[in-house]
Amino acid sequence: MFPLVVGATPFGILFGTLAVKSGLSIAGTLAMSAFVFAGSAQFISLGLLAVGTPLPLILLTTLVVNLRHLLYAIGLLPYVGKLAHRWRLAMGFWLTDESFAVAIARYYQSDPSPYKHWYYLGAALFMYGNWQFWTAIGIWLGQQLPDATQWGLDFAMSVTFIGMVVPYVITVPMLMTVLVAGVTALLAHSLPHQLGLLVAALAGVAAGFAVEQFFSQETK
Predict the structure, then answer these.
(1) I need a surface site. Which of 19, 180, 211, 220 has the fewest CB within 10 A?
(2) Per-residue pLDDT at 84
(3) What H or E segment, with its residue span, contains residue 183?
């Protein structure tokens, strides 16, 4: 998780800085990171709040952006479905792109350890604490430095996501999933309320599934 935490650090600083510049209170900024804990949704909701968007539309927009987590949950379900309800609730709250990438890699390992959900929890809490800390640092920087938002810190998250995806591109279906999702994301970028992300995710999943089915039929 450590490289992913490092990659998320500039993102947390940027959010704290932007929140202050957008007029969100310090308490509101810290509460958003603590209770929402979803970087993309926080940035989008911050922009919508700044222009006076009605609350129902903000909730709907962030819901659409976070629907990708449903795909993560489906991927984890075969491994966590038998856990107690309290465990699944906790894992759902702390589910992020980074924690999923680390956890699914651990679940893919063939050893029979019954404690892999504790591994997930440790990785997720590491990221959660990191996000809260750097949000607070970003708030402080936003008060001290007038141009911190111009540092280009948001680029770090793009690099982090590339690093998360590339190690999993080891089969033809995975490659097709990435290519189709990437191309679709570019083509659908202009859709409102970040719907392009959802369309790209669904297109990638459909392409990967279709290719996997094709190869499974070929081997029969």
Answers:
(1) 220
(2) 93
(3) helix 172-187
Question: What 8-state DSSP symbol labels residue 67?
Answer: T
- pLDDT number for residue 193: 63
CA distance 40 to 1: 19
Residue percentage of the chain with pLDDT more than 70: 89
- For residue 186, give Cα distances in angstroms to 45, 119, 131, 190, 218: 22, 35, 28, 8, 32
What is the distance between the alpha carbons of residues 220 and 217, in angstroms, rounded to a whole number? Answer: 5
Q: What is the DSSP string of 130-154?
A: HHHHHHHHHHHHHHH-TTGGGS-TT
Q: Are 44 and 18 in contact (CB under 8 A)?
A: no
How crowded is residue 63: how many other Cβ atoms within 10 Å of its Cβ? Answer: 11
Would you tell me the crossing angle of helices 55-66 and 68-80 to the nearest 10 degrees? 50
Structure tokens at 54: 């009605």
Residue 149: per-residue pLDDT: 55
Q: For residue 109, which amino acid is it?
A: Q
With contact defined as beta carbons under 8 Å apart, do 12 and 134 qualify? Answer: yes
Report CA torsion sign: 112, 113, 118, 119. Answer: negative
